[in-house]
Amino acid sequence: MATPTSATSSQPTRTFTNSTGDETLPDEDTSEVTRLFHERLQAWKHAVGYLEEYVTATEKVHHAHGKEYDKVLKTVSHPLKEGHHFDQAVGGIAGMFEAIRSNTQGLSDSHTTTAKQLKSTILPIFERLHTEIKNKSKELLKGAGKGSKAVDKARHSTQKHVEMLGQYTASFDSTGGRLTAAEDPYVLQRGVMHRLHKQIIEENNNRQDLISVQNSFAQFEAHIIQTIQHGMGQFMQVVNTQAEQSKQMYGDMVGKAQQVPLDFEWNGFVQRNNNVLIDPSAPARSVENATFPNQNHRATQPLIAGSLERKGKIMRSYDTNYYVVTPAKFLHEFKTDDDFAKDPTPELSLYLPDCVVGGVNGPKFNVKGKDVSKGKVGNTFSMSHELQFKAHTPQAAQQWWEVIRQAAGQVTGELPEGSTPTSPTESNTTSGTTPLSPVSNEKHVAPIQTQGLPDRTGTGMTTGTTGSTATSAGGPLSAAPASGVEGKTGEY
After folding, report:
1. Of 246, 253, 301, 380, which shows the fewest CB atoms inside 10 Å?
2. Rounded to an integer, what distance in angstroms lies between the CA atom of residue 102 and that of residue 141?
3. What region holds the PH domain (predicted)?
């Protein structure tokens, strides 16, 4: 009897995808590995079924003596089903069945006692093994098969949102940026990131499930071969009382089975299917490395973003939220800038061309308009509200106000509550400051740095040098705001 070798073997080298970088929607079939393992289990089940048939037929033949051994030979005369899963070289399962065929031909006698022992002792060993393989197949389909369906569902959701992003980014360029809040490419891109995050979690979970199944198959196949060896050993003991010739023939069959190394078939299987099996050492996918169409489109880049405080309507206290002004001229409010915790749907959306913007009073400024985040129906029945904002510093408030003013439909110059108005005469006499314009009632502020800043608002603004202000046909305009956070343009 040959000494069993270790069930460990070299792992396949194929990664989960065929591309060199992470793709948003890989084109591999997530159920391909599951089908391959299911087919292999079917092959093992049929192989064990062959042994069951062999023992059963042998038991019958022992009742009818030598003339019935032709029936035994017929049970193993057909090629193995799914035979391509077995190594055809000498020393494997296919070689073992070839030895069974040749030795069965030489058997000429059997006895009733031997038939009873075969039926009560040997046959149940292979029947239990057959049942184990069936249960393994069901476990595979319910586990890894279910994970593959979840991956396909997540990919479909991501694909649908990516197509929506492509549709409305193209619409943004063709319509001049006139979109609804739900069609804002910035919001759609964040929706893509949210669904892509869920998709990758499902892919990685399914990948880990398949790796676990793949790693367990070597041990399971070793168990199959060990059980076959044990059953054939018991079979030899049953027929050992027969004639010397029969004993030698059965001993040869068992010897061929015992000589199959535990990892012989597995190593051959891995070598023949290394282009399909998963490489466990390949890194898991990550959102940071994933790319998708229109990911960096100019319509998805905010003009300014950061945290502001907004005064509540009921409690009249300030709550801090994350705000963004997009190239589509929307002012969006979010609970957080995290794209992954939940779907980043705006809590509040103001279409700035339809809004009225007041003046700046220290860190405070007001914007009056309708919340259009609920779509066309919600916009029809919504009322205009005056929203009171407060930045962290007066300089930050000025930068937010400048960006919002560029896109706003009307600027009144009205100061937020808490300011103490003075007459133009008193202001000029006591402080020496420039009086408010009687036409626009806008507050004159010190010029900000505009040197080298790009025109990101699409308003036709021109940039000047330090100490100058950008102008348009409607009056003085400031350039795009400078960054409030180091290393992140337009964020606070």
Report:
1. 380
2. 38
3. 301-409
User: In this structure, are residues 385 and 314 in contact, taking their beta carbons and an 8 Å threshold?
Assistant: no
Do 164 and 136 lie in one domain? The reply is yes
Q: What is the domain-level CATH number for residue 405?
A: 2.30.29.30
Q: State whether 229 and 320 are in the same domain.
A: no
Strands (E), 147-263: none
Range of the domain at 72: 32-285
Q: Report the distance separating Cα 317 and Cα 128, nearest Å.
A: 72
Read off the tokens for 483.
């960054």
Which of these, 227, 193, 158, lies nearest to 344 by C-alpha position?
193
Query: Looking at the structure, do residues 350 and 203 belong to the same domain, yes or no?
Result: no
Q: Do residues 380 and 367 lie in contact, with contact meaning Cβ atoms separated by under 8 Å?
A: no
Range with the poorest average pLDDT among 186-195, 245-254, 282-291, 474-483: 474-483
Residue 370 phi, psi dihedral angles, 5° rounding: -100, 145
Q: What are the phi and psi torsion angles at 384 (to 5°)?
A: -75, 135
- Does the pLDDT value for residue 377 go beyond 90? no
> Distance from CA of residue 221 to its chain's centroid?
31
| Cα distance between residue 21 and residue 25, in whole Å | 12
The DSSP-derived string for 418-458 is: T-----HHHHHHHT-PPPPPTTT-PPP------TT----S-
274 and 324 together in one domain? no
275, 324: one domain: no
What confidence tier does 195 reach under pLDDT thresholds 50, 70, 90? confident
Q: What is the pTM of this model?
A: 0.47
Give the total number of structural domains in the chain. 2
Residue 468 inside a domain? The answer is no
CA distance 342 to 336: 10
Residues 307, 199 share a domain: no
Q: Are strands 475-477 and 364-369 parallel, antiparallel or unpaired?
A: unpaired
**Average pLDDT in the 148-158 region?**
74
Residue 393 lies in a domain: yes
List phi, psi (to 5°) of 220.
-70, -40
Q: Are 200 and 290 in contact (CB under 8 A)?
A: yes
What is the full DSSP assignment across 371-425? B-TTHHHHHHH---EEEEEE-SSHHHHHHHHHHHHHH-SEE--PPPTT-----HH
Q: Is 128 helix (H, G, I), strand (E, B) or coil?
A: helix
